[in-house]
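Margin note: ligand = iron/sulfur cluster.
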Amino acid sequence: WAMQAPYVAAINRLKQERNAVVLAHNYMTPDIYHGIADFVGDSLQLAIKATEVEADVIVQCGVHFMAETSKVLNPAKTVLMPDMEAGCSLAESITAEGIAEMRAQYPGAPVVSYVNTTAEVKAASDICCTSSNAAQIVAAMEGDTVIMTPDKYLAQNVAKQVPQKRIVWWDGACIVHERFTPQDLRDFREWNPGLRIIAHPECPPDVVAEADFAGSTAGIIDWVGREKPEKTMLVTECSMATNISDAFPEVEFLGPCNMCPYMKKITLEKVLYSLHSMSGAVEVDPKIADRARLAVQRMIDLSR
Ligand code: 13P
Ligand code: SF4
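Resulting structure:
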């Protein structure tokens, strides 16, 4: 922390000069999460917050699709992305052509795209979803068949929660959550009697089946606060446990540390550079933004 303190101080000073706010995802490193964020949350909370920002500048501490979503929802603001290379294996797995292929294969079926997609893919979809509202959104769709893109595991997990729908999916996965195996969870339970396990729904269904509960990153934080387990394993990106451990000193956090290489591209140094030089502004073609906004806004309206 001593090494990072000057960066934190400089960024917080610059935020005032530029009239900027920092929106940070729960997977950011603790220096960002605790040191410079004005708002932290899961993907849905960040999207909703972006619609409410009054400051001139949003610094998105997260990955590129999150910055695009903020720009789409609040186009008058300058949205800074401290590292344009901070992508996402899910967002990179599908293009608008992929959505067209799925529509051709399942004519008339609504397309529900995860927010972990580019603005172009959102624009080609009927509605978006996040891990906190996916089952609710899918259940609200008309017709028997629903196309879910691009996360096959989220789709398979939702299929169990919404058995009345036939869900078909794109073959994408999150490189962080697909690495966990059911055996990892069984091993940690055996080594730590009384361990409570919570998994993110981007994990394969056989992993979710071994957990006590599944939820979005905000759902995971709520669950820990509610259940106050003596020992817990968060089957998700590694920084989550570090970020929330101070708030729950009575809880012991255990488990393997799987990091998202994209999220970890965002550093204090890059945030400082971006705010200082006002570089890394995200732009979305206004025609695409208009259509993408419809899909995201529909999701927000249905989630309220
Ligand atoms: P949530 O924070 O919405 O659960 O999303 C997790 C994730 O992997 C974001 O990239
Ligand atoms: Fe994408 Fe997975 Fe990283 Fe989230 S954790 S940004 S879903 S690769």
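The radius of gyration is 19 Å.
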